[in-house]
Fold this sequence. Notes:
By secondary structure, the chain is α/β, with parallel strands linked by helices. Helices cover 33% and strands 14% of the residues. The protein is built from 13 helices and ten strands. The protein has helices at 10-30, 37-42, 66-71, 122-135, 160-171, 178-182, 188-193, 215-218, 227-240, 281-286, 292-296, 320-332, 346-349; strands spanning 49-54, 76-82, 91-92, 142-148, 207-213, 250-254, 276-280, 300-304, 337-340, 353-354. The protein has an eight-stranded parallel β-barrel with strand order 1-2-4-5-6-7-8-9. Strand 8, helix 12 (320-332) and strand 9 (337-340) form a beta-alpha-beta unit. Helix 4 packs parallel to helix 5. The longest helix is centred in the N-terminal third of the chain and has 21 residues, at 10-30. The protein is globular and about 45 Å long.
Amino acid sequence: MGNSGGSASGGARHTRTVAVAAAVAALCLTASAGASPAAAAAEPSYAATTGVGVHNAYEKAKYPYFADALDSGASLLELDVWTNAFGAGWRVSHSNPLGNDNNCENAATPAELRTKARDQSLAGCLADMKAWHDAHPGHRPIVIKTELKDGFYDKSGRGPDDLDALLGATLGDALLRPADVVGDHTDLDEAVRAGAWPSRSALAGKFIVELIPGTVEENNPLDTLWTDREYATHLRDLAAAGNLRRAAAFPAVHTAAAGDPRTRYQDAAIRPWFVFFDGDASAYVTRDIDTAWYDARHYILIMTDAQNVAPAIDGTHPTEAQARARVNDLAARHASLATADWYPLPSVLSAVVPRG
């Protein structure tokens, strides 16, 4: 089993869990009315809580419209994006690299949600997010996990700077940008280790875009510049030029690994730009991985396929008790987000519990 306890004593862990649980409960009670400055100061940071996400939330079989996914209460929603030259623009689809197959409709206003044709591009999904945000301006912070199935395609206008421009033009102030977290620090690593993550209520109304390399990219022997390294290099270069404010997303280290998995990047200068880590929940649990290491440094740890951790439960239709128990188990193992296909369980998707 992975290390789920760290070096603290059992009593210290219990005290911390009770304290964070009380703060999370207080946040739930005050969020709708707006927390006072004193209450906000007492809240745990975003990195001290665990939420629940939905795998491939753009699929029509799960939600008729992406607005329904946004309504679900989930703390993370996943999109799959294709960029290759054989299709136009940024396509959102699971298995069609040439076109769009999704529940996004490109709504221009809240009134248009659930009224237009679906199968839109990434721009259409972002438009839905903005329209939904306008109707719910104080919504929970939502991670938009974006798998670039075949990576960036910079020479055709689908590179990191182009993605920044698209995200910024569509979502505007609804985005949490890396610069918002970095502040006066040198890089993301220094910032989050110093406690720079805001509280959940301070992140009300924000989308956080996470980028991971895609399955096609990772299995393409001719692709030597994957999404994670390309976007982290982009962040490093923007920061060096004093232009970090242009960046709109957070790259993630993909797949679970022991130790500091950022050592896989030969260029040490890009390592401090990774504070998101994303991998299979079973791997984090069964391999010799100290998951407390992520929590102690306030990194965001996303555990996928939560249903497969032994004893496995149904990936779509577990009982509510089973799903809640699994979320609590992975929270105790220091997950920031546990993801599965539990879209039929909105009461579980909306759960936020103490981490660690």
